Amino acid sequence: MKLAHDRLRTLIAAIFQHAGCTAEEAERIAAHLVEANLVGHDSHGVIRVAPYVQWLKAGKVHANRRIQVAFENDAIAVVDGQGGFGQTIGEQATQLGIDKCARHGVAVIALRNSGHLGRIGDWPLMAARAGVLSLHFVNTTGAGILVAPFGGIERRLSANPIAAGIPIQGAAPLLLDISACTIAEGKIKVALNKGIDVPENCIIDAKGQPTTDPKVFYANPPGAILPIAAHKGYGLAVLCEILAGALTGGGCSDPAHADRVINGMLSIYLAPAFFQREPEFAAEIQRFIAWVKSSPRTPGGDILMPGEIEERIRTQRLRDGIDIDATTWAQIGEAAKSVGVALPV
Asked: pTM of this prediction?
């Protein structure tokens, strides 16, 4: 079925408000989840509603929390998310980075103990809209162990996203949002709900054999996701674990904490005006983009900057609605019923 984004957002906000979030937090969670669907990242969209509600009821994530500052100076802050919803904690941590960067030209925010941060691209996008460049490294402790190391077959690493945003004068920001593994776990869940295969060379079964069956990933014993680009993606994953896990104080991948999903994020913020005159910076980016796009195309090919495909999908889904598969809609319905919210007819 297809739903208009505003109708879907209203429903999701009602679910989280009835589950115990303030109206403000419920609206924020709904906005981020629906936006992920709008830009084509269904793995981080409303498919997350049911597990989020379950986690909240089980005390594995907490409503209405604020970051707690463990250490702070002019350019650095180490903050604890208090196990709060990532959509709230991520926004608070990012705003702190933007504010420090505006004053000092650079900022580093080490966030630990946050609930699931959702689509990581939301945070560099927020910074870019404030005129700030940013780079973000993320890890997951415990329940997020999904990925086999290069040369191994059992899960040892989290998906380890890396995201970056660059403001572009008069245009949408450049936005890179990738993970160090071949496929997001949420995309496997989307495939499972739709009853379709995942792409080849993304997951392996418990014996290390390639498979495209999403059910195999959730089997007992479970399968695992592969790193991107073999040893290169594995190296990036290790880097994320150290920066977002060890350095923030939140911890690296550790099965001792497998009862819940906890994210750590190391974020670096840079204000262009502190490095050179902004008109020259903007002009050089535009020149570079034009140069890259001047390359002859492959047959039927297109040359896009990071973030452009999301903007195109967003335009289409704002117009045509967001497609929700029957399984995901049923799961949302169960979550809504569990907190006393009726689905729209």
From this structure: 0.95
pLDDT grade for 266, boundaries at 50, 70 and 90: very high
Q: Is the peptide bond before 51 cis (omega within 30 degrees of 0)?
A: no
The correct answer on CATH 2.30.30.90 for the domain covering 182-226 is no
CATH class in words for 73-181+232-275? alpha beta
CATH architecture of 1-64+311-345: Orthogonal Bundle (1.10)
CB 337 within 8 A of CB 50: no
**Residue 345 has what pLDDT?**
63
**Could you read off the pLDDT of 53-109 as tens digits, one per residue?**
999 999 999 999 999 999 999 999 999 999 999 999 999 999 999 999 999 999 999
How many angstroms separate the CA atoms of 84 and 321, rounded? 30
Task: Quote the strand ranges of the chain, DSSP E.
Answer: 2-3, 68-72, 76-80, 106-114, 133-142, 161-168, 171-179, 203-204, 210-211, 224-225, 261-270, 322-323
Q: Which of 343, 335, 265, 345 is nearest to 53 (CA)?
A: 335
d(CA 247, CA 266): 8
**Span(s) in the chain for CATH 3.30.1370.60:** 73-181+232-275
The DSSP bridge partners found for residue 268 are 108, 135
pLDDT tens-digit series, residues 300-322: 999 999 999 999 999 999 999 99
For residues 194 and 218, give the distance between their C-alpha atoms in angstroms, rounded to a whole number: 15
